[in-house]
Specification:
Length: 259
């Protein structure tokens, strides 16, 4: 059994203690981190003592992703040659030999304010490139898992009051359409297999007592290719980590794989 987790950590240097607690309690084999908000050199050196190796794609003060893998896993990095995806530090891409699985760690641009055409168009272009990657791997019948913060409300029930988000870059029809086009390339959103829409959120804003009122959003996802779907045993939402001192505004989610 393997555990793969994803977490928008919202500054890894601030959340190290919470991340350590998560590792001690869940013991994931692979952790996909988003919004680490540090350069490669600034990533805190705690992971080796927990038995992990690190792949990091950092950027000073904003964005950034990192992938932690248990030592002993044989993996290789997959290099992306795409101007849109490479202009900001928002992806890690690896192949894990033991799982015969390609894993793409993503931190999708927010795209707000939607009136800022340059920002919003960049988000749609960015997701369009993810769609191309998905189509390529699906057409080659290669196993693919895309996990991370997609900054998209796929379903109207993925937030308490969708009317407040319909004209937002997270909930507008353009964002939801391109997300569904990614799925239509042949991927399944794992949460839809195990959870009823509206039953689980992954993000609560720090403002307006959103956590206390459970006014959350589901914008973090795992998308999986067809052959691998049968190996997914469940998906879990670590809501308790949002209630800790100095939490990320996102929670960790993780899947159990029968591999």
């Amino acid at each position: 059994m393997a555990i793969i987790a994803s977490w928008n950590i919202n500054s890894v240097r601030i959340r190290v203690d919470i991340l350590k607690k998560f590792i001690e309690e869940i013991n994931p084999d692979i952790i996909l981190l988003q919004e680490i908000k540090c350069t490669n050199e600034e990533f805190p050196d705690f992971y080796s003592s927990f038995g992990y190796e690190l792949i990091v794609n950092g950027q000073k003060g904003k964005y950034g992703v990192a992938t932690l893998l248990k030592k002993g896993l044989n993996f290789k990095s997959i290099e992306l040659e795409n101007e849109v995806l490479l202009c900001e530090s928002r992806t890690n891409f690896i192949y894990v030999n033991e799982y015969n699985l390609n894993i793409l760690n993503v931190y999708t641009p927010n795209g707000n304010p939607i009136e800022d055409k340059k920002k919003f168009d960049f988000k749609i272009s960015w997701l369009s490139e993810i769609k191309k990657i998905s189509k390529h791997f699906i057409n080659n019948v290669d196993n693919l898992l895309i996990g991370g913060d997609f900054n998209v409300l796929e379903n109207k029930n993925d937030v308490l009051n969708f009317d407040n988000w319909e004209n937002d870059a997270l909930g507008c029809i353009e964002s939801r359409t391109i997300f569904r086009e990614i799925l239509s390339s042949g991927l399944t959103n794992i949460v839809r297999i195990f959870k009823k829409p509206g039953s689980s959120f992954s993000y609560w804003d720090y403002q307006r007592a959103c956590w206390e009122r459970n006014d959350g959003l589901l914008i973090d996802h795992f998308l999986i290719s067809p052959k691998y779907l049968k190996l997914v045993k469940n998906i879990n939402f670590g809501s308790k980590y949002r209630g800790l001192t100095k939490p990320s505004d996102h929670i960790p989610i993780w899947i159990n794989l029968d591999v």
